[in-house]
Amino acid sequence: MSLRPVRFFSKSKESTLKKSDQTLKIGSCMTKKDAYYFPHDSNAKRDPKLLLLRHQLGAQGYGIYWMLIEDLREQEDYSLPVVIIPALAYEYNISEQILKTIIENFGLFEIEDGKFFFSPSLVRRMENWNVKKQISKQRAEKAAKARWDKALNENNKPQKAECTSNAQAMHKQCTSNADAMQSDAIREEKRREEKKREEKNTHIGACVEKIMTFFKFTEANNFDKLREATQFVSVLEHRNRLDYFLNQLDGYMRYKSESGEKVHTFARFLGSPDKYYEDGGWNARNWQEELKTTSQTSAKSLDEIMNNI
Asked: Which residues fall within 8 angstroms of residue 22, CB to CB, at 6 or more apart?
């Protein structure tokens, strides 16, 4: 199911697609606090789609992608009209054809009804962030109100005027505390997300290193192989196949070592990107089962030799 951003302007404005402040708000619709925070995975450059983008268009294409994401983020519905592409290309100082290629050819953006384009990833991330932000705010306000109500009840005694003043002062303090609690909750959520990303990056990095070591490649001398291995691992991780691959890799390495069978070339071992690498040598057989068969055969041969002595 594709993510479709919610439109906040009328059909008449949508149909005319005028480049006015009502339809396009480049740099004008975010608060200072919202502009300060923007969800961005630290390993975004290793996303399979972005790897292909970088491979074909280099750092320039990668930079243009994030410029588009930033401009989309500034829109209330996280989308922009297709007719603005020539103007954006002029602003980015690139050709219109390159910008269209980035928007249309890598699966990073979707075009709705031929009129608007948006990033499903951005829409999903911002919707999740807005929900978390609202929940944190509601919890903080609820806690602040409970403290304020408690203060009013405890101070509902003689010296009413003084107590009321104290309660009002406490109310202001509680409101301030609520804002602080909201910020703390957002920071804590960011910390947890960052920890998950770091763990994921570590797992991916260890897997890539294992492949490079097996084929006796180094980053300094075989950077192209490192890039291919990283793309390979990223695709498998995205398809929840990485743990299966690691089990297969362990069986593959041990089987080839014990059987003496020829190892696949690096390219044949990985497989084809257009087939999500499922046709690679790593997946040609169940290597753990092959290893068991080889081990049993070796043990049987050893027994026969001992019996003939």
From this structure: 9, 13
Residues 196/237, Cβ–Cβ less than 8 Å: no
Q: Could you read off the pLDDT of 257-266 as tens digits, one per residue?
A: 989 999 999 9
DSSP track, 187-201: HHHHHHHHHHHHHHH
CA distance readout (Å), 15 to 5, 8, 86 = 17, 13, 18
Q: Which residue has the tokens 């009013």?
A: 152
For residues 280 and 271, the answer to whether their CB atoms sit within 8 Å is yes
Give the whole-angstrom CA distance, residue 72 versus residue 77. 8
- CB under 8 Å to 63, separation ≥6 — which residues? none
Tokens of residue 26, six digits: 């480049």
Nearest Cα residue to 197 out of 93, 53, 25, 44 = 44
| Amino acid letter for position 258 | E
Domain ranges, ordered by start, for the chain? 11-118, 127-210, 239-308
What tokens does 86 get?
A: 């020539």
According to the model, what pLDDT value does residue 205 have? 86
Neighbours of 293 (CB within 10 A): 12
Among candidate residues 229, 247, 242, 228, the one with its CA nearest the CA of residue 200:
242
pLDDT tens-digit map of 162-209: 555 555 656 566 666 666 666 777 777 777 877 777 787 788 888 999
* Long-range contacts of the stretch 261-264 (C-beta < 8 A, 24+): none
